[in-house]
Amino acid sequence: MATPPALQRPAAAAFAAASAPFVVGTRLAPVQASGGPRLGALRRASRPGVAPGGAPAAPPQRRASHPSWVPRGGGGAGATVASASAQPPPAAASPPAPSPSLPAAVAAAVVVTPTTPIAGQTTGTSGLRRPAATLVNNASYLPNLLQAYVNALTPAVTVGASLVVGGDGRYYNATAVQTVLAMAAAAGFARVTVGAGGLLSTPALAGMVVATGAAGGVGLTASHNAAGPDGDWGIKFQAPSGGPAPEALTDRIVAATLAVTEVRAVDFGGGRGVDVSTPGEQSFWGGAFVVHVVDPAAAYVERLREVFDFDALRAYVATPGFGLRFDAMAAVTGPYARALFVDALGLPAESILRGTPLEDFGGGHPDPSPAHTPDLVAALAVPGAGLTLGAASDGDGDRNLILGPGFAVTPADSLAILTEFAATAIPWFSRRPGGLPGVARSMPTAPAVDRVAAALRIPVYETPTGWKWFGSLLAAGRIALCGEESYGTSGDHVAEKDGLWAVCAWLSVLATAADAAGRLVGVEEVVRGHWARHGRTFSARWDYIGVPGVSAAAVMDGLRSGVVAAFAGEERPPPPPPRTDGDGGDSGGDRLDGPTLIHADEFSYTDPVDGSSAAAQGVRLYFASGARGVLRVSGTDATAAATLRVYLDAYRPWGEGVGDVDTADVLGGVGGEVARLARIAELTGRDAPTAVV
Ligand code: VG1
Ligand code: CO
After folding, report:
1. What is the pTM of this model?
2. From residue 146, how far is each of 20, 180, 186, 211, 413 by CA, in Å?
3. How far apart are the first and last CA of the chain?
4. Engineering a disulfide at 412: which of 25, 448, 481, 558 sits with its beta carbon 3.0 to 4.6 angstroms away?
């Protein structure tokens, strides 16, 4: 029997006292601007060898002397990867198929530029993210990475296939689109679909990959990370399912980055790039390569029309007294929101805040949490403003924030409530015979949805962090809804998280609630109704941003060799009967029986559909009260330092006062105890998190 660590007053009891004044559902400690170390002023390096359009310039290098992709003497792109990556292939290798040939006219335009591998081109939780300066200062950075992508796919996949590309519009987007087009042609892709202006939100990209039967998609985005020359840049690779590339592929890509010897790109002639400013089709080399520029929003909105009842939503939002404010955060969703809310649903244009995509997102941090949407929060709080729903989405449009006046919905509650309402409020689900097959949440996401799923008698899958882990469950039809605590939710209409889908889903819930009540029903009232039926789940995330990587690793290692080892081989005790009082329970700082650790383990996962597995996906600490703490290190941080994440949750059955307890009161003590057990202050020098989300 492991000895529970000695009881101690929590080090961070201060958090229990602090709160963001407007949020009832998620009252939290004050949030400092997150960010961590940033690069200093960017030196605009000259970029020899890069044409104004961004594609590698017509070079002093050799032309491809062989018109076929088949490598000379067994060398060349695909074979180089296989031989130079000395590691065993991650998946069982199938016998090599003969490499298809590039059309001769395209092959003649291919320029081959020798290169050397760049270390550290790893893909994190969702693609590679780096400071923009890393790419701008090294003209080989993006071409090397894209060549690795091409090599990992192999000519069997790329030649004659189609591809989709688009980004969130951040700095370097336009340059990167040209690089992708030049390299896609050289890889033998026959057709590339591009969002006009080089723009595509991540869910729109995912939908377009499926709609065009593409072999993949390239998303030029660092998602919720800040943009601009001093911000971050990133790239997401989508699989033919539209979803994030699974680890089997990203492992191959990373291996290929270490073996890349040359970059292949076409020269479109005269140093020009391809004009992607307006929709239309452009044909090159007699039709051997076609660039199809599409309206970024049109197909996306049509897809949502299949999911929701737009007529009903149009009628609902026309109800006197209804008002919406959607904050596009000067990132990619502005044009989508206009097409959806203004053009399709008939809402006034002022419903959209920060609707024009800017290269630097207006200097803001496009992370849709209350801390980063102050104007939206303020607009909702204006007395008599008549606003019903406030919402926001992140840089690439896959996350969502749902607000009512003075109230924020936690992502865990949002998933639970959408699951509860899906079959009655959203036609995509209600017309499905047999109802919802199941739901999923990432492991650190508080288990509010588990209670709804139990009531519906459907399974809940608990997956590692990152949308890629939902992919096989969605494809196999095991789940129809899924979500993460990082403000991501979606259904199975697309294999990605989808910010505007979530807003439409909430509009549908509100419309259904209004129908039942015969009057407008607010966001807070819907959430309180859910709490009354299922009890209230409290959740928060404490981020320690910009911690030295070694310190973050020391925290995780210390937990593994400490509490996790101490409980190794033991069963987790059944959860205790939940407290029924509303006094905040786990605050610990003012209670003698503060949080007591009863179990600890490290989450590992085996995919029930395809058998893929992942170890070390977060350390879990279980407390006697039923509260839980989870620790893991971010896989999307673009800086050299690390972000340590501490996730906290607790549960109270519905009862007197439970709806009015501050989250900070419930979770402050648990968080303090988690920080103490993990020795965060000692190992990182941080007494407090950088941000509470
Ligand atoms: C974070 C979130 C995770 C999300 C990922 C991508 O990852 O925690 O839930 O899937 O970002 O989100 P990490 O490893 O930093 O915790 V985004 O909007 O890129 O697409
Ligand atoms: Co995102």
Report:
1. 0.85
2. 43, 7, 11, 23, 39
3. 35
4. 448
The ligand 1 site (C-beta within 6 Å) comprises 125-126, 223-224, 394, 398-399, 442, 465-467, 484, 486, 488, 634-636, 645
Distance between Cα 270 and ligand 2 center (Å): 36
Q: To the nearest 10°, report the CA torsion of 669, 674, 679, 685.
A: -60
Q: How much distance in Å is there from the Cα of 130 to the middle of ligand 2?
A: 15
Tens of pLDDT, residue by residue over 118-144, are: 999 988 888 899 999 999 999 999 999
Catalytic residue numbers read 223
Q: What are the residues whose beta carbon lies below 5 Å from ligand 2 (ion)? A: 223, 394, 396, 398
Q: Which amino acid is at 34?
A: S
Output phi, psi for 207, to 5 deg. -65, -40
User: In this predicted structure, which of 319-323, 379-383, 538-542 has the lowest mean pLDDT?
Assistant: 379-383
Give residue-wise pLDDT tens across range 618-636.
999 999 989 999 999 999 8
CA-467 nearest atom, ligand 1: 10
- The number of the ligand nearest the C-alpha atom of 244 reads 1
* Torsion angle in degrees (nearest 10) through CA of 190, 193, 194, 200: -140
Report the chain's mean pLDDT, rounded to a whole number: 85
CA of 391 to the centre of ligand 2 (A): 15
